[in-house]
Amino acid sequence: MEGIQSDLDVIRGALARSLCPAAATPAAAAYDAEKDGRHGGAAEGPGSGGHQRAGMPQSPSTDAGVDCDRLELARLREQVSLLSSCEAEKARLEVEVASKEAALRQCAQASHTVLQREKEQQEQLHRATAALQEKQAELTMWRERHQRLQREADLLRQELDALAGQCDRLEAAVGELREAVLQVAAENDRLRTALHGTEAECEELRRRQEEHDAVVEREAALRDELQAIHTTYSESLAYLTAARAEIEARRQYWASVQEEHASLQEALAAAQAAVCVWEARFVSEQAAPPASPHSATRENAATSLPGDDDGGGGSCTGDEGESHEAHLAALEAKVVDLALHLQEQRAAAAAAEEGYATLASAVTLESRELLEMRRLLAAQRPEWTRLSDTNQQLQAALLACESHVEALQELAVSLLDELTEQSLYAYELETQLAVKVVKGGGGGTAAPRRSTALHFMQRQQHLKACASGRLN
Fold it and tell me: Residue ranges of region Disordered (predicted)?
């Protein structure tokens, strides 16, 4: 391997020199020196060759070096081709070695598999041998049992001949039992039909009971509502009684107010007439030319006392003239007071009219509400009466249905008692028949059969318990 590496180094150097001819001379000189160093001992002769080479003149010629390099390159190429062939041969040999190793591993695995198969076959053979021995022992046992069974079969044949007569008698008994079973089945169908009818009636009664409960609940709700209406009616009646008393008091008050208003209107009319008279007099006095106090007092006296013009007029002229102005001022103040009092009376009359209108509207509204409540009560009274009648009818129907259901339940219980007795009788007959068959078969193993009579009896007992629970 070391020789191959050295050869590769030589080849690399030669290739480098061939690729770079300009730099080939120093490299060639170095290579020649190295080669001389390596092969010095081989190149020297017994004493003459080395001296001759040392004594020969060396001419550094480029052509000679190139020729040497070419020769060396050719030699190296031959070595490279030889090395390539050696490497190819080496790769081929490695492939052959790998294939041989794989074949060897396969052979080892195959031998191991064969050994395992042989071991398994030996184990199977051992098990088969043990099983064969067991089967042989079982065969011996079965042969003995077969012989014993043959002896028992002979005995059973003898007993079978003896039981032939009993079979005839049993067939006759079975025929009678079949007839009885058919009768019991017919009775059972009839009872089942009656039971279905009873269940349907019970369902109808249950539905009626639910309807009755709903009606009772509705009646209770209507009673509560009616009680609330009665309470509301009592409250409304008390309120209306109080309102009526208040209205009567207000009417009396209004009558007194109207009387007072009439008297005030009469007084107002009289005051207005007096005011008109005084206004006319005042206007006439304002429109007339100014006169002496004596003429004014004379005119006042003439207007106020027309019958006294001829007697004692001259004696009162001086006093009336003095108090004329004061009398006019008093009259004006009285007119103003009368006007203010008239306005106050008018405002009081307007307020009284508004209060009366408000009270009348309130009374009218309350009267309308009372009439509406009476109308609602009158409208609901027939429905309440109808519901009461319906409730009484439903209660009577419920009592009748309950009595009918009790009678039907008693009938169902009696029918179930009879059916239970028939089932017990059928069960006893089946038990006797089974005992006879077992005794006649000589102890043979018969398949277990569920007794239909026993199942039917259990079912009837369950139905009887349900019926008694319903009665309770």
Answer: 26-65, 288-324
Rounded Cα distance, 331 and 337, in Å: 10
pLDDT tens profile 182-232: 887 787 788 888 888 888 887 888 888 888 788 888 888 878 877 887 787
Which residue, chain included where needed, has tokens 């020297």?
44
Residues of the chain with pLDDT > 90, as a percent, come to 0
301 touches 320 (CB < 8 A): yes
pLDDT of 175 strictly over 80: no
Residue given tokens 């519901």 in the structure block: 387
415 burial type by CB count under 10 A (0-12 exposed, 13-18 middle, 19+ buried): buried
Query: Is the pTM here over 0.70, yes or no?
Result: no
Residue 227 three-state SS: helix
- Here the tokens at position 106 are 């396969």
- Spatial separation of the C-alpha atoms in residues 359 and 246, rounded to whole Å: 10
What is the rounded CA–CA span in Å between residue 293 and residue 272? Answer: 28
Query: 416 near 437, Cβ under 8 Å?
Result: no
Q: Where are the strands (E) in 100-156, listed by range?
A: none
